[in-house]
Amino acid sequence: MNKPKTLSVAHAVRSRILRAGGDRLWMYANFPAGDRVAVSAALSRLARAGLITRLRAGVYYRPRRTVLGPSRPDPEVVLDAVLRRCGADSVRSGIGEYSRLGLTTQASGAITRAVPRRMNRAILREVPVHLSTRPLEKQKGIRPEERTVLDALRDLGRIPDSTSRDVLERIGMLLRAGRLSFSRLARFAIAEPPRIRALLGAIGEDIRAEGPRGRAVVSKDALHALRSHLNALSTYSVPGAREVLVSAASWRIA
Description:
Elements: H1 3-20, E1 24-27, H2 36-48, E2 53-56, E3 59-62, E4 65-66, E5 69-70, H3 75-85, E6 91-92, H4 95-98, E7 111-115, E8 129-133, H5 144-154, H6 164-176, H7 182-189, H8 194-208, H9 212-217, H10 220-228
Parallel strand pairs: 7-8
Antiparallel strand pairs: 1-3, 2-3, 4-5, 6-7
């Protein structure tokens, strides 16, 4: 790479960062891919000059000046940036998200994400991070609330400050209110363990049995898709589920 081009890239990087203002992350992906070496060198020089702060390899932050001093980056934004830098798509889910959907009253100080493969949990040092390996490659387009509900069914009986009844009734309420799409959940549940498909199927069958409104929320096709992906001879032990779900037996939930 010749010197004039390097200087041109450095000037472009600096100008773009200055124009964008503070409280923003910067990564190599924010700049033209063909100039990776020059961009890396430019970001390193700007970090040494104090214009930006290096948070991780390839992840930088430009603070915003406040009356209390320089702003700090949002840990969740940093985590998502680091995960993208590692080539891992992630979705908010788990204990950190259960309270958002009313599945528990307990808040969590940890940042929780579903990721497609096992990763180092020490990926972010500033706050506790919980990463759960989930089949995201087969669940393209899944939304955080949908991933959270599927994880809640995985964690049924182990969610703090919540019983199995609480969780199952709340999921049913979210479906009836239209905050969740049963058809979408059923499609994503195909990649989940059979126990999750059975639980979702029993919830859906109970809703559908409620009459026209229930049939509008839960389609026969979605239930059929779930049942067709279950072994007709298998049973699923889910303590407390049969006390809540009328259709539990027909989905072989013990």
